Fold this protein.
Amino acid sequence: MRLQKFLARAGVASRRASEELICQGRVSVNGEVVTELGTKVDPAHDVVMFDNHPVRLEQDHIYLMLNKPAGYLTTMSDPFNRPTVADLVPVDTYPGLFPVGRLDQDTTGLLLFTTDGELGNILLHPRHHVDKCYEVWVKGILSDTSARKLCEGVDLEDGRTAPADVRLIKRDKQHHQTHLLLTIHEGRKRQVKRMCEAVGNPVVRLHRRSFGPLALGDLTEGSFRLLGDKEVSALTNL
């Protein structure tokens, strides 16, 4: 692991600030001051010191959920300085946080973050089919035939989708929209939007209510909370 990443993961400073600390000669590895940014360390065996104080990685990973507002990119940095989800979660307190999957800039709702790279990869792997429930508002009145197509799977450019669960909430003839709940078991890019477009009802608004065993509950938009032990266990048991 690169030294600056190790320092960031240990909570000493952000990765960029850690690079500055290294250049200032405030970090040593196995008793030797290190100023080269490319230096790599073995967290299990090397002794890293910052200002003569030992630095160790915490063994426990962090898991939290964010109720993402619209207007934020699902990335931890953006070269054009646009708002990102990193602005909404405690990256200084918990260095190494990353989002599990992504939500489009205009999509709101539950976004899981963790420092556990192994679990993140497992949850995103296609073979695990983690359920994702979305509240969807589409243009037009969704017909029974189109709803049945969503349930059975629709043909997209990257293949037929797996069957989905659909529950109609309201057909709003006054505003020419349909409100529904759509649960998918895959994680293709922009899948819900593409499915609805394929049946002739483009998405007007999209909000993710749950991810696997996790539900937003009363978490307010733009806020985050750490997961409880039972929620973490439910995720790892997937």
User: Anything to note?
Assistant: The two ends are 28 Å apart (CA to CA).
